[in-house]
Amino acid sequence: MNNQNNLFPLSQDQKIIDYIFGGNALITVRNEDSKNRFTFKIKKCKNPKAIKIDLYWVLVLTMPDNNDEKSYKFIGALSREEGFRHSDKSYIKDNAKSVNVAYYYFNRLLGYSKFKLHDNIRTYHMGYCGRCGRLLTVPESIDSGFGPECSTLLNIPHEVREAEFKNTLFEQNYRGTEDYQIK
Question: How many C-beta atoms surround the C-beta of residue 122 within 10 A?
Answer without folding.
Answer: 16
